[in-house]
Amino acid sequence: MFFLGHMAWGYVWAVVFAGRRGGKLFVPAVLMLSVLPDVDLFLGGFGVGHHTFFHSIFFWVVMFVPAFVIFRGKVVPYLAAVVQHFAFGDFVVGAVMLFWPFSLSYFGFSAAMMSVFDVALEIVGFLLAVGVMFFNGDLRRLLSVEKRNVLMVFPLLALVSSMLFFAVDVPVIPLVAHLLVSPVFAVIVLAHIVLVVFLAISTMQGLRKFRFRNF
Ligand SMILES: [Zn+2]
């Protein structure tokens, strides 16, 4: 699954787990957490394999213990954003060491990236996320002049770098390398562009707040 699907479904799952607090999620954090397990793509030099322990439930539950102690139930939607990355996204489109360290087997349906199934799942997640954002007010908040929106620059940079330098899963190839390879390419690229524009506008709106405050 591309960062597009991970971010979209990460937001949707976080809202589901937030319940009534759904409208008060800190969206830049949700989006970053939903792609965070893929930092293992850059840790190969340290002997960390992609889709290994960074894609395990146990690892992230342990990582979240300090946050649980401090913020209690409020962290549940954020943990959901991380866990859905590999227990839903990479599990359906790929296979991961879900139960590390208890089992070193890879679990998943191993659907191929850029398959019609993958693209459909990502687009459904994207449309669902936009719909939920519209109805719970997050869309309006994220497009208004608010200081916190400047942090949308982080998911923006993550998404753009995923498009230019790697396509999230093995083999590590950029999204642009799929050009002319698949007829579904246009759909997934168009969705990426829409999300990039949205994140950029949100970031700019955050920056505007800083300008008005300081000058
Ligand atoms: Zn992953």
Walk me through this protein's architecture.
The chain has 215 residues and is mainly alpha-helical. The protein has 9 helices and no strands. Helix 1 crosses helix 5. The longest helix has 30 residues. The protein is globular. The protein starts with a helix and ends with a helix. 39% of the residues are buried. Bound molecules: zinc ion (ZN). Zinc ion binds next to helix 5. Zinc ion (ZN) binds next to helix 5.
Topology summary:
Blueprint: H1 3-18, H2 27-33, H3 57-63, H4 65-71, H5 76-92, H6 116-136, H7 138-142, H8 153-164, H9 185-214
Bound molecules: zinc ion (ZN).
In summary, what is this structure?
With 215 residues, the chain is mainly α.
Distance between the termini: 43 Å
**SSE order, one letter for each helix or strand:** HHHHHHHHH
Q: Count of helical segments?
A: 9
> What ligands does this structure carry?
zinc ion
Record keyword descriptors for this entry.
single chain, 215 residues, mainly alpha, 57% helix, 0% strand, globular, binds zinc ion
